Amino acid sequence: MADKKIKVGIVGGTGYTGVELLRLLSVHPNVALTTITSRGDAGLAVADMFPNLRGYVDLTFTDPAHSNLEQCDVVFFATPNGIAMQQARQLLSKGVRVIDLAADFRIKDIATWEKWYGMSHACPDLVAQAVYGLPEINREAIRGAQLVANPGCYPTAVQLGFMPLLEAGVVDISYLIADAKSGVSGAGRKAEVPSLFAESADNFKAYAVNGHRHLPEISQGLTAMANAEVGFTFVPHLTPLIRGIHATLYAKITKSVDLQALFEARYADEHFVDVLPKGTHPETRSVRGSNLCRIAVHQPQGSDIVVILSVIDNLVKGAAGQAVQNMNIMFDLAETSGLQIVPLLP
Amino acid sequence: MADKKIKVGIVGGTGYTGVELLRLLSVHPNVALTTITSRGDAGLAVADMFPNLRGYVDLTFTDPAHSNLEQCDVVFFATPNGIAMQQARQLLSKGVRVIDLAADFRIKDIATWEKWYGMSHACPDLVAQAVYGLPEINREAIRGAQLVANPGCYPTAVQLGFMPLLEAGVVDISYLIADAKSGVSGAGRKAEVPSLFAESADNFKAYAVNGHRHLPEISQGLTAMANAEVGFTFVPHLTPLIRGIHATLYAKITKSVDLQALFEARYADEHFVDVLPKGTHPETRSVRGSNLCRIAVHQPQGSDIVVILSVIDNLVKGAAGQAVQNMNIMFDLAETSGLQIVPLLP
Amino acid sequence: MADKKIKVGIVGGTGYTGVELLRLLSVHPNVALTTITSRGDAGLAVADMFPNLRGYVDLTFTDPAHSNLEQCDVVFFATPNGIAMQQARQLLSKGVRVIDLAADFRIKDIATWEKWYGMSHACPDLVAQAVYGLPEINREAIRGAQLVANPGCYPTAVQLGFMPLLEAGVVDISYLIADAKSGVSGAGRKAEVPSLFAESADNFKAYAVNGHRHLPEISQGLTAMANAEVGFTFVPHLTPLIRGIHATLYAKITKSVDLQALFEARYADEHFVDVLPKGTHPETRSVRGSNLCRIAVHQPQGSDIVVILSVIDNLVKGAAGQAVQNMNIMFDLAETSGLQIVPLLP
Amino acid sequence: MADKKIKVGIVGGTGYTGVELLRLLSVHPNVALTTITSRGDAGLAVADMFPNLRGYVDLTFTDPAHSNLEQCDVVFFATPNGIAMQQARQLLSKGVRVIDLAADFRIKDIATWEKWYGMSHACPDLVAQAVYGLPEINREAIRGAQLVANPGCYPTAVQLGFMPLLEAGVVDISYLIADAKSGVSGAGRKAEVPSLFAESADNFKAYAVNGHRHLPEISQGLTAMANAEVGFTFVPHLTPLIRGIHATLYAKITKSVDLQALFEARYADEHFVDVLPKGTHPETRSVRGSNLCRIAVHQPQGSDIVVILSVIDNLVKGAAGQAVQNMNIMFDLAETSGLQIVPLLP
Question: Which chain A residue lies closest to D240 (C-alpha atoms)?
Answer without folding.
Answer: A197
